[in-house]
């Protein structure tokens, strides 16, 4: 445990504590803070941080600014008068607070008072690292069992484990409660009112408590019972099935409250972001009624889903503000939890070295993504069972770096469905952003789409408000004094799917437009962005301009006396030049090999004489 002022950084469980309050940070901001705290009192340059957090990946330095803003907000730090993180403009950051080591055991493991009310003995095998969340659900169940109705929203991004958490909670409740679940289905909200409600009622009537449920509906809400096909038959042998508008909401509320008079009733609504308006009205009414009821409503919900209805958002916020509801937001899994998840999936505690780190880095702590990455490693033969006679174990058969960049098929299909819900322009805009890797500025997207920057930024802002996998990260000042907003993908897998779904020819043209726009933006200072320009030219297969840009970057490195960096850039330029036609290749290789030889012979110049490479071949 790293201690600074009232904060404790728990590096084992990857979380931050403020005295007895646990603060969950996303994986990347936590990794940034951890690196700074583990290197206190000294300058940590932008390049050092980027190399530590994104090894072997080019990432724009602007993305660090996003994480610093997030960390300063959590730490309540002032950039102008920093207590913790000092910014050294154009250089990097310094952690200025004194840091001490203390045993992790000194910090409370269960910070929330409501979690103390019902601490689960152990996590069910299906989930990991959700002890506090399960405890909170159980605490709400206990209050509901005492006659104080409860409404709880379990929120989080796709694949974070909302349904798994609710499944585990319902299993733990066992026979102590009547549980009914309804699934909201995308597209049905406009056509079929109360779809998830009818599914839940059907389960109730068919359960071990079905007789009580049917009796309550028959007495207080007969229209609802008839709609389920359980009403007594008429003289002609038929039973009336009234239209949805005839099912009176108040009658159903009264019937549900009667069912919850003696025994806890748990109503679970999955994917509330797809709910019809009538279902939202029912939840609102049940949560606001004042009569005592042993009733707990649990709704899973993706707040940033493109299909989210404003009414659902308004309902949640209003119930939270009036203290009639609560939210349990699921965060990404920390590295130890991802390792635990892998161990459970593979059925063995001892894992190949670096497997947990690799899966955590590529999934960013999303359980669904972590399992998909693991399955991809197995499908490619990088992980395989070895041994016999009941002693077989999963072993690493090849370096993890050899895993193909492609996203696992099932995961890619799921993401494709999310993308296809957007209109064509929005899809093209996100595809353009994927060309820039983790963070993408609006000027680059506008250059790719040949659009006005202001119009592009407005659309990006709209998408960032609606989508869970795109976030506005800040603004960057360009050399001409103008400002350009930039955004980040929450997960690399979304960027990869968006990148791969573009035809190669369109990708190549887009990369060239971005590189050329970079050159115009930094006219007269092209050397400062030559490395990034080279990346785009190389991705487009423009080998000549990629090699030229790398040589320009190498010259710039030499001017800064960064000889090792200049040598690495020239080596890369030599590899790229191998793709050129023979005549061009020979001419360029000869010049670059001479430049490389000059670098490797420092005795050929005085110690104070800077190395200057030829500017033209």
Account of the protein in words:
It is a single chain. It is built from 25 helices and 18 strands. The protein is α+β, with helices and mostly antiparallel strands. Helix 7 packs across helix 8, helix 18 crosses helix 21 and helix 23 packs antiparallel against helix 24 (563-577). It starts with a strand and ends in an 18-residue tail after the last helix. It is elongated and about 95 Å long. The model is unreliable at 105-121, 240-246 and 603-617 (pLDDT under 50). It has 5 domains: 2-106, Arc Repressor Mutant, subunit A (Orthogonal Bundle), CATH 1.10.10.10; 113-232 and 245-329, P-loop containing nucleotide triphosphate hydrolases (Rossmann fold, 3-Layer(aba) Sandwich), CATH 3.40.50; 332-386, no CATH class; 409-502, Orthogonal Bundle (Arc Repressor Mutant, subunit A); 519-617. The strands form 5 sheets. A 5-stranded antiparallel β-sheet has the order 4-3-2-1-8, covered by helices on one side. It has a 5-stranded parallel β-sheet with strand order 10-11-12-9-13, with helices on both faces. A 3-stranded antiparallel β-sheet has the order 5-7-6. Helix content is 48%, strand content 13%.
């Amino acid at each position: 445990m790293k201690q600074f002022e009232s904060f404790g950084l728990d590096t084992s469980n990857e979380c931050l504590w403020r005295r007895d309050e646990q603060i969950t940070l996303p994986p990347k901001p936590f990794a940034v803070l951890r690196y700074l705290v583990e290197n206190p009192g000294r300058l940590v340059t932008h390049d050092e941080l980027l190399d530590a957090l994104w090894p072997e990946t080019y990432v724009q330095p602007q993305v660090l600014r996003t994480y610093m803003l997030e960390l300063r907000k959590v730490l309540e730090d002032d950039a102008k008068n920093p207590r913790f993180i000092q910014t050294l403009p154009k250089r990097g950051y310094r952690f200025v607070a004194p840091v001490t080591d203390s045993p992790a055991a000194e910090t409370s493991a269960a910070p929330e008072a409501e979690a103390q009310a019902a601490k689960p003995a152990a996590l069910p095998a299906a989930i990991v690292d959700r002890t506090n969340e399960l405890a909170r659900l159980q605490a709400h169940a206990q209050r509901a069992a005492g006659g104080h109705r409860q409404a709880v929203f379990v929120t989080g991004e796709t694949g974070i484990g909302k349904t798994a958490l609710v499944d585990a909670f319902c299993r733990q409740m066992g026979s102590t409660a009547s549980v009914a679940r309804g699934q909201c289905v995308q597209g049905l909200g406009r056509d079929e009112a109360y779809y998830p409600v009818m599914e839940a009622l059907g389960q109730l009537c068919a359960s071990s408590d079905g007789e009580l449920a049917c009796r309550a509906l028959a007495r207080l809400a007969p229209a609802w019972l008839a709609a389920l096909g359980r009403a007594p038959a008429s003289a002609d042998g038929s039973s009336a099935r009234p239209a949805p508008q005839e099912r009176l909401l108040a009658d159903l509320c009264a019937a549900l409250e009667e069912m919850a008079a003696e025994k806890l009733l748990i109503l679970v609504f999955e994917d509330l972001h797809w709910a019809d308006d009538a279902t939202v009205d029912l939840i609102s009414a049940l949560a606001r009624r004042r009569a005592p009821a042993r009733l707990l409503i649990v709704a899973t919900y993706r707040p940033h889903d493109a299909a989210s209805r404003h009414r659902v958002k308004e309902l949640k916020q209003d119930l939270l503000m009036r203290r009639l509801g609560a939210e349990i937001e699921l965060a990404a899994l920390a590295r130890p939890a991802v390792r635990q998840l892998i161990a459970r999936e593979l059925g063995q505690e001892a894992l190949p070295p670096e497997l947990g780190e690799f899966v955590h880095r590529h999934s960013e702590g999303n359980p669904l993504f972590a399992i998909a990455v693991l399955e991809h490693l197995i499908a490619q033969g990088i992980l395989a069972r070895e041994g016999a006679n009941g002693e077989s174990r999963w072993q690493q058969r090849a370096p993890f770096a050899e895993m193909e960049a492609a996203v696992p098929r099932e995961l890619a299909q799921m993401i494709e469905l999310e993308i296809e819900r957007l209109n064509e322009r929005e899809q093209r805009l996100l595809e353009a952003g994927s060309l820039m890797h983790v963070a993408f500025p609006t000027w680059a997207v506008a250059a790719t789409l040949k659009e006005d920057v202001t119009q592009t930024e407005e659309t990006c802002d709209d998408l960032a408000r609606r989508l869970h996998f795109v976030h506005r990260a800040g603004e960057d000042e360009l050399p001409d004094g103008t400002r350009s907003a930039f955004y980040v993908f929450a997960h690399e897998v979304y960027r990869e799917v968006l990148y791969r779904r573009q035809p190669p020819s369109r990708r190549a043209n887009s990369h060239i437009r971005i590189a050329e726009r970079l050159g115009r933006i930094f006219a007269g200072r092209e050397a400062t962005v030559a490395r990034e320009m080279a990346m785009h030219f190389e991705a487009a297969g423009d080998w000549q301009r990629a090699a030229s840009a790398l040589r320009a970057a190498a010259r710039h490195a030499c001017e800064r006396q960064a000889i090792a960096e200049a040598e690495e850039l020239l080596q890369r330029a030599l590899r790229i030049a191998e793709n050129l036609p023979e005549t061009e290749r020979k001419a360029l290789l000869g010049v670059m090999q001479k430049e490389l030889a000059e670098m490797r012979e420092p005795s050929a110049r005085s110690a104070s004489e800077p190395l200057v490479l030829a500017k033209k071949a």
